[in-house]
Amino acid sequence: MLVPYLVFAQQGAGPDMPIILEHADSIVGAGQFESSSRTFYGNVRFQQGNVTGRCDRAIHNAAANSVELFGNVVVRQGRLTMYAPEVRYSGANYVATATKGIRVEQNGQTIEARRGVYSTNTHIAQFFEDVFMYDDSMRMWSDTMIVDRDDDTMRATGRVVGYDSSDRVWFESDLAQRDARTGSYALTNNARLWQWGNSGDTMFVSADTLDSRREPNGSARILDARGSAVLIKGPTCARSGRITYQERQALLQLDNEPYVWTDSMAFVAKAITASILEKRIESMTGAGQALLMSRVHNAIPARYDQIAGSVINLSFAQDTLRTILAAGDAQSITYRSDSTKQEGLAKVASDSLRAVFENGQLSDVYWLGGIAGEHHPERLVLGKETEFLLPRFSWRTDRPQMAQPNTKKLR
Q1: What is the enclosing helix (H) or strand (E) of 5?
Q2: Which residue from 59, 214, 223, 375 has the least number of CB within 10 angstroms?
Q3: Cβ–Cβ under 8 Å, residues 222 and 213
Q4: Rounded to whole angstroms, what are the CA distances from 221 to 182, 214, 288?
Q5: Angle of CA points 178, 182, 185, to nearest 5°
Q6: What pLDDT was estimated at residue 14?
Q7: Residues lower than pLDDT 50 in the chain
């Protein structure tokens, strides 16, 4: 019965490219081949152009040029292979639909979901509900995912969670887009990223949009966080309109009104850069109306030590501040006290200044060039602390806290 059916289909009657059932152990059906439905049982194999497949049972509708596949369904096109318990395939629209689970494999990448739709014409696959994608280095979970085989791109939406073992990165967002050819991905809306160093320390970044891309002809990454960006690394954290991290240069760049907290101090400037050594911040430089602030003590919360300059450089050792260098119209305001009482403040202006810290405590300060100093006794300072705030002073209390990644989906 199968031989004349195949001959009839291949002679061109019906659709331009009919679905051809190549093999089955048995066939059940009646009526004219071109208008009837046939059920094929056992070791079923079918073909349409470069699309092939197999299953345990198939119901073929010649008039609609469609086939329903049941049991151990496998559909192949080129390097793509689809596995599912049931698939509806329309030869007229070139669309395969799986509603009871699907797994797709291609080029070392696997995607699993509860439902999926694949177009053998456009080579675009869509996945829905509990989507899980994995390859040699990446794991990603989402509510939906769209993959374009021709462009080798992916778009995931809805509670996206991912892990990249090659970069030791865990990320989350509402939308994630990945370009496998360039090794780049973009996270949008509630984007958050954690990167672990060799010693277990973590860098946390969040923003409206997070882009991670590899440098041309290199493996080093560039991370670009834009819109309400937050950075936390060791005792240092920051808020900024934009944060960029260049892995090769181990350099952080903060632009658009950056505000940095480090230990008990706050740091502002028009732009701030930080150099990282062995996953720790080694130095930090603020350029353009830079100001470093530190609350003196909690007993009188309005009192702040301050250092200002056109450029301020901070150097660290093992996450502890070691030196401060301020250059260009340097100014300092430091409150004085002994063990029993407050002794007012000293206000000094100079070309530059250098402050040295021991075990996190200020030990020495050096003023260089054009020095002009004032001492204000306690009686002229108490209750008038706001009169001794330098320009650009801003003590913010919205210091960001490290969020915890959603690792419940990890498998």
Answers
A1: helix 2-10
A2: 375
A3: yes
A4: 11, 4, 28
A5: 25
A6: 40
A7: 1-15, 411
Instruction: Please report whether residue 322 resides in a domain.
Output: yes
pLDDT, position 15 = 42
Angstrom distances, CA of residue 128 to CA of 111, 149, 334: 11, 17, 61
Alpha-carbon span 315 to 323, nearest angstrom: 5
* Exposure class string for 373-399: b at 16+ Cβ within 10 A, else e: eeebeeeebeeebeebbbeebeeeeee
Task: Give yes or no for a contact between 46 and 21, defined as CB atoms under 8 angstroms apart.
Answer: yes
Considering only CA atoms, which of 303, 306, 277 is closest in space to residue 290?
Answer: 306
* 102 in Cβ contact with 113 (< 8 Å): yes
Domain count, the chain: 1
Residue 212 tokens, joined: 């991670």
Q: pTM value?
A: 0.81
Residue 178 belongs to a domain: no
CB 114 within 8 A of CB 87: no
Q: Which residue has the tokens 């240092």?
A: 236
Please write the tens of the pLDDT for every residue from 191-246. 999 988 666 678 899 999 999 888 777 677 888 999 999 999 888 899 999 999 88
Burial of 1 (0-12, 13-18, 19+ CB in 10 A): exposed
Using CA atoms, how far apart are residues 400 and 391, in angstroms rounded to an integer? 24
- Evaluate whether residue 301 is within a structural domain: yes
Distance CA 165, CA 374 (A): 57
| Inside any domain, residue 231 | yes
Q: Is 381 left (phi over 0), alpha (psi -120 to 50) or beta?
A: alpha
Closest to 5 in 3D by CA, of 34, 28, 25: 34
Give residue 214's domain range.
197-406
Check residue 342 and give its pLDDT.
87
Q: CB neighbours (10 Å) of residue 7? A: 10
Q: Would you state the structure tokens that stand for residue 228, as one six-digit string?
A: 């309400």
* 264: alpha, beta or left? (left if phi > 0; alpha if psi -120 to 50): alpha
**Residue 229: strand, helix, or coil:** strand
**Helices (H) and strands (E) in the chain — how many of each?**
2, 28
User: Among residues 235, 267, 273, 237, which one has the least CA distance to residue 255?
Assistant: 273
